[in-house]
Amino acid sequence: MTAVQPQLPTEDAVEAGTTATTAVRGRSRVPWRFLAGRAAFYLFTLWAAVTINFVLPRMMKGDAVSQYLSRNRNVSPEAADALRSLLGLDTDKTLVQQYVDYWVLLLRGDLGVSLLHGLRPVTEVISQALPWTVGLVGFATVVSFAVGTVGGAVVGWRRGSRLDALIPVTTFLATIPYFWLGLLGIALFSVNLRWFPIGKAYGVGMRPEWSAEFVGQVIHHGTLPAVTIVIASLGGWMLGMRNMMLTVLDEDYVTVAQAKGLPNSRVLWRYAARNAVLPQIQSFALSIGFIVGGTIVMEMVFSYPGVGKLLLDATNAKDYALMQGVFLVITLSVLVANILADVAYAFLDPRTRQTEA
Length: 357
Description:
transport; globular; two-stranded antiparallel ribbon; MetI-like fold
């Protein structure tokens, strides 16, 4: 007699939520080659970004000391040379020596001092401006992504209904230049209706502190710019998710799930939306990464103290140390956001884990 071979436990392909060729759950292996490749890629990207960060400011005409001397003519030549040496602009050193010194200081966590802010450490200057940008723009970006993705999924699921009217409306609002939308919001809600302040992060005479009054001031001042950011970016998230839903709903695993009699809510969120959201993850990672540096226009319109305004002032003053510090923060934020996007993408898409393994 022929021995009956025991069958391996199988998993329904629909339950896997993908169109994977096999649903057999094998022993998972750590994709060391993939991890090593991604680590090498991100390390090389970090090195290239830091190098460009070092070179670009020095290609600009003039420097921070020259700008400072043009405003303060009573500074002696010895003091000017001391300032150049302090800022890493010593003419006695070659560009290669300055590059090596920059890396040494960077590895120590020393980003230099800002001449624009009275020789204060760059880390201190950035640390005071960064929470304002991350708190406002980060919150608004997350809200717009969540609302746009969920709304796009519902609109795509109910295609042909009256909800389709939301797509052209939100897309039209997204085509309006952000600064113009912000100015309209200020004119309507600040000047005419007086519901919100015209600008700033908090009222005049207030000092930053953890108190109910100060937190209320911050929320009151930040509501209008946050709503403006959400309105300006909502259309892109909703349109992208709705188009992906229309593509995913024609897949076989969605049809099989519906044929099995699964609840519509489970088919929508467990199968259709889970796969349709994958391209949104990469876009969301880029949006999170550019939160730090992509807010110059918003902070100028609303006079909001943040990293964008800090970068603009540093560029005008040719403050190398401050410019390099802000660029470094932007670079790190983009890299970290992309790493998190890779992890989230592999978690949401089982096919990615199988391919990488």
